[in-house]
Write a structure and sequence with these properties.
The protein is of the alpha+beta class. Strand 3, helix 4 and strand 4 form a beta-alpha-beta unit.
Length: 694
């Protein structure tokens, strides 16, 4: 029996699959299988080492991250692997399952095994689990940070025969560090400081597994690792590919064309398209590029919600309980309406809605809805209020706003449109429609600007359109031809021009998104491709970025900075400025130091300055994109605010280091206001010179 797409609706983050409960099979595992990650492989290996009784291995494990990152799944997987490796025949699993099920009373914040007998060779007598370190013990006045502090005190005082595994977020770690500082307990404070530094993003990487300086402890920042990045040479598929494979498994879906909506079903069309490896690879690339461009990581909850959104749609309010994706699509293309005219309009509107539910358009679901009011007035002037295609388009823009599944996913989808929408991609970007045909977006724009028919026929020849997309473009083609008719234009040519321009705009937007997402070509695709190669260690791209950043920090081969302003303040008038000028501050590459003891860093760093004044600067995507834009001719005055802020912060830090370094001051000049005099340092003394002469 087919379970999809109906079952996918429950994959959403606000449904049963959204929250994982420990040892409860009906929650948090929508795909029905464990999604393997690098962390799970690490934990499985660790369980095997523990079973061997290796005393040097970590005994205290902290999994650090926010909601939806799979911490609870990792805890359960670890318990299962420990039970297997220690040969406990499910004794440990059964005990902890009973404790967390409530059959033995309400489980507390910390659950410790009591009855399980571990092999003597392992040196273990018990295992303690903290499923959620952000919660307090029920009935206790202690805060989560105080509980964590007490746990660490206990572990440092000699619980060598216990395994301790905890999920904790960064906020609780920070609060516990402040608490340790307030109580002036050095061992716990030093340990917490080391943990916070290890899971933080910095140029100086520190070992996480085991924790540097604390071999009994290990931490892992789960929100650093990418779930959508495809690692070249890895034997394990990315989490995103595993999730997509489970969601698009052909055996779980009705045979294409046999559901209630037939070949017009957007969800069955999406499954069919994503069953092709090239298309699923392109989609995963788009998801990865969202991470790079936004600086946000996809977590499990949002990935499952996204898959549910693009493969099963959604409904809100009273319709949610009775929602069936294929039946919904069928109701759109075959509405219950007796009036022939109204029925044609509803069919047209439904066709638009069906297309926007297909995965390429569901990911980028913004349409020119602000033009609906003007469109209605123009259709009235042209006496085309009952033209099926035009009236259906108006109703779609005016009334049909699709609802996202969760508020979190709504934020992600808005970010996708902002950063990646193929509809706003550069016209010069190239799309490979087939092995024998490549085309630039500007050629698609040109064809649709002349007529919808020309663009549709070109894409149809290369089999780039699904049945719903082909049908909606045929509707827009009919509208386009009607608006080109002399009898229509004679009524009001200006209104006809406006409506026709909107028709062709929507048609072009559908075409761009359809081919762009299918072939992985989005807004700034060229920059994102180069940035992703840089993160993988491409030194040539890093070298070019280094040179541009150096040019931005210095002016006329000198470094200039104001000494009488605080960072963030505007510069005072020229007559009141105190300007420090020194030799150009050099920018150097920082090597990509990475080993198996910590996750791959999500950004590269540059070193600015020299000696003790050197400062690390994160080469963020926005900064890298700015260097690419400068290379293409953009003027520095047009840099984004975030990039300007980063550069100003770097200048301020460098200035602070320079004025405190006696050797650096020997090469500096200080000018007060508009005066000709310059203040310099010579043999440890300050000297005033005029006009550049001593």
């Amino acid at each position: 029996m087919n379970k999809h797409p109906e079952a996918l609706f429950n994959w959403s983050g606000d449904k049963a699959g959204g929250v994982k409960k420990l040892f409860y099979k009906g929650s948090g595992r929508p795909s029905g299988v464990v999604i393997k990650t690098g962390l799970l492989e690490r934990l499985s290996f660790w369980a095997g080492e523990v079973a061997k009784g290796i005393d040097q291995g970590p005994r205290v494990i902290f999994l650090v991250g926010g909601p939806g990152n799979g911490k609870t799944e990792a805890i359960e997987y670890t318990i299962e692997r420990l039970d297997e490796a220690l040969g406990l025949n499910s004794e440990l699993i059964n005990e902890l399952s009973d404790l967390y099920s409530g059959r033995m009373g309400s489980p507390g914040r910390l659950v410790r095994s009591v009855s399980t007998e571990f092999p003597a060779s392992s040196g273990i007598q018990s295992i303690a689990v903290v499923q959620d370190g952000s919660e307090s013990e029920r009935g206790s006045a202690l805060t989560p940070a105080e509980h964590l502090y007490e746990d660490l005190c206990s572990q440092l005082s000699g619980r060598d025969n216990e395994l301790y595994v905890a999920c904790v977020n960064r906020g609780v770690l920070d609060d516990a560090l402040i608490l340790a500082a307030d109580r002036d307990v050095k061992p716990v404070g030093d340990l917490l400081k080391q943990i916070v530094q290890a899971v933080s993003l910095s140029a100086a990487s520190q070992s996480c597994w085991p924790l540097a300086g604390h071999p009994r402890f290990a931490v892992w920042p789960m929100d650093v690792e990418s779930l959508v990045e495809e690692v070249v040479g890895s034997r394990r598929n990315s989490a995103a590919r595993q999730i997509l494979a489970a969601a698009t498994r052909e055996a779980d879906w009705p045979e294409f064309g046999t559901c209630a909506a037939g070949q017009m079903c957007p969800f069955c069309n999406s499954r069919k398209l994503l069953d092709v490896e090239a298309n699923s690879t392109a989609l995963i690339r788009v998801l990865r590029w969202f991470e790079l461009s936004s600086g946000k990581r996809w977590n499990f909850r949002d990935l499952f919600s996204m898959v549910a959104h693009i493969l099963a749609g959604g409904a809100s309010g009273k319709l949610a309980n009775a929602y069936s994706p294929c039946d919904w699509a069928a109701s759109q293309i075959d509405p219950k309406e007796k009036s022939p005219v109204k029925r044609e309009i509803k069919v047209a509107r439904g066709t638009f809605r069906v297309v926007t539910a297909q995965y390429q358009h569901a990911m980028f679901g913004t349409w020119p809805v602000e033009r609906a009011v003007a469109l209605k007035a123009d259709l009235r002037d042209l006496k085309l209020e009952e033209h099926p295609a035009l009236a259906g388009m108006y109703q779609f823009l005016a009334l049909d706003k699709r609802k996202e599944t969760t508020s979190t996913l709504h934020s992600q989808l808005q970010g996708m449109v902002t950063h990646l929408d193929p509809a706003s991609a550069s016209p010069d970007l190239v799309v490979e429609l087939s092995k024998n045909k490549t085309i630039q977006f500007k050629e698609i724009d040109r064809l649709f600007s002349l007529s919808v028919r020309g663009g549709r026929e070109m894409l149809s020849r290369h089999r780039c359109l699904s049945p719903p997309e082909n049908e909606v473009l045929k509707l827009l083609e009919q509208a386009d031809e009607k608006l080109s008719d002399e009898a229509t234009r004679r009524r009001k040519s200006g209104a006809a021009d406006r409506v026709q321009a909107l028709v062709r705009l929507i048609a072009c937007r559908i075409a761009r998104r359809s081919v762009g997402v299918r072939f992985g070509v989005t807004k700034d695709a060229n920059v994102l491709k180069e940035f992703s190669t840089l993160l993988r260690g491409d030194e040539s791209a890093l070298q070019e970025a280094k040179q541009k950043v150096e040019g931005l920090l210095n002016k006329d081969h000198r470094f200039h900075v104001s000494l009488n302003t605080t960072f963030g303040e505007p510069l005072p008038p020229p007559e009141r400025r105190v300007m420090l000028t020194t030799t150009a501050q050099r920018v150097k590459q920082m090597s990509l130091e990475h080993d198996d003891s910590r996750p791959v860093p999500p950004v590269r760093f540059l070193s600015v300055g020299s000696g003790t004044s050197a400062q690390p600067v994160a080469l963020t995507y926005e900064l890298f994109k700015a260097t690419i834009s400068l290379r293409s001719g953009m003027v520095p005055a047009s840099l984004p605010r975030s990039v300007v802020a980063l550069l100003d912060t770097t200048r301020a830090k460098l200035a602070g280091m320079v004025v405190r370094d006696s050797d650096s001051l020997d090469e500096c000049d200080v000018r007060l206001g508009l005066r000709d005099e310059l203040i310099t340092q010579n043999f440890g003394k300050f000297v005033v010179r005029r006009g550049g002469l001593s």
